[in-house]
Specification:
The complex is a heterodimer. Chain A is mainly α. Chain A is built from 10 helices and no strands. Chain A has one domain: MetI-like (MetI-like fold). Chain A is globular, with a radius of gyration of 22 Å. The mean pLDDT of chain A is about 90. By secondary structure, chain B is of the alpha/beta class. Chain B has one domain: P-loop containing nucleotide triphosphate hydrolases (Rossmann fold), CATH 3.40.50. Classes of the chains: A mainly alpha, B alpha/beta. Chains A and B meet through α7 and α8 of A and β6 and α2 of B.
Amino acid sequence: MLRPLSFALFLAIWWIAALFAGGAKLPSPPVVLDVVIAEAASGALFLHLGATLARVALAFVLAMSVGSAIGYLMGRVKLADRLGDPWLILLLNLPALVVIVLAYIWAGLTEAAAIAAIAINKLPTAVVTLREGTRALDRSLDEMASVFAMPRWRAFRHVVLPQLAPYIAASARSGLSLVWKIVLVAELLGRPNGVGFEIGVAFQLFDTPRLLAYSLTFAVVVLAIETALVQPFEARATRWRPRAA
Amino acid sequence: MRLEIEITGKTFKSAAGGTHEVLAPMKFALQSGEVGVLIGPSGCGKSTMLRIILGLDRDFDGHVARPPEARIGMVFQEPRLLPWRSVEQNVRLAAPDASDAKLSELFRILELDAHRSHFPGELSLGLARRVALARAFAVEPDLLVLDEPLASLDDALAGRLRDEIATLVASRPMMTLLVTHSIDDAIRLGDRLFVLSPRPARIVQELTIAIPRTERGEAELARIKAELAALQLESK
């Protein structure tokens, strides 16, 4: 009930602001909607949206899987933690723009360079979150698994993974928003399609309705992914917790 | 099958840098079908001994001979169930080979039938302990270790659970090691009692109870208790 209300409030503020600012700076919702419909009808919207989504998906999966594995290792093995920590701090503080520009210089204006650059930006936060989660693992349950001689894989799946699930969900949620911010920069700088490319074009033409049409459509897609995938995963992972009264 | 324990010493370093002796030299063995009981004041090092016997702590002087193929069933002091798995899954994960009939029987004896699909967070401590017991017995252990399984339960419940443990222990031959600070539990369940001193723990008395568990009446129990008290006085 509250969500639609909050959305309506957002629309109202936008509309009122548009009346004050004028159509060139901030077009009203119907103007933007017209552009969305026109772009959708020509198929361009889906092409660019699809290209961006594919990059987000690839970079996200890459960063989450590699980052989680490294984070788990660093949480478990002290030596890995001490060796990896300086790298981690470097990566965490490396500006996204630097990574993207260097990737394009070293690997050319290619799809692989773009996806790798986006993944490298997301990677360190996944590592940090999963390392924290691994450090918080309950040792008494590890001992239980070892006394009952549970095979490694079964212990990992039933003892370790459920404890990491909230950390994976948190990392996925923050990661999705990070990847979505960075993918546009990578597209703006070196890809011939995608939402970022379109926003670059709109910026050169000062075409605000087009700019808003693309970015808001993408925001809706991200919101849908969050509601349809991330939240159900979280609910499933925490369903054993007694509900708060 | 036989469990032989010979510990010549166990120390640990405190954060301040000092070394503390937790266990003094001790030696004992346990046969299949026997229930050995370690009785001692809290903090005397019983849990450390268990960790050594179970292979969780390898940093000690001495030797533990445990048949490598021996299956271990353990009831920890805190039940240590997986909160994200149901009661039945908790048992099945530890004992994947247990048959449905075997599990049904265990759940019936321990009165857990109604709780199979519950999560541990929804159970009282008494029920959670029973699940831990079901899990330990479901693996059909060769070595059963019970670490204060009746602590912090009210007397009536502790008594019932003790009878259930006695029934289950009698159901198949295994080496059982019970750790407790309750003399009552010790003399009702044990065949051989090892009385431990305060830290650093050593065995101050060893007492074998020849009367089978089921034939111990109140009179015999009182006599064993008196004998134990006399032994403890002697050793002081």
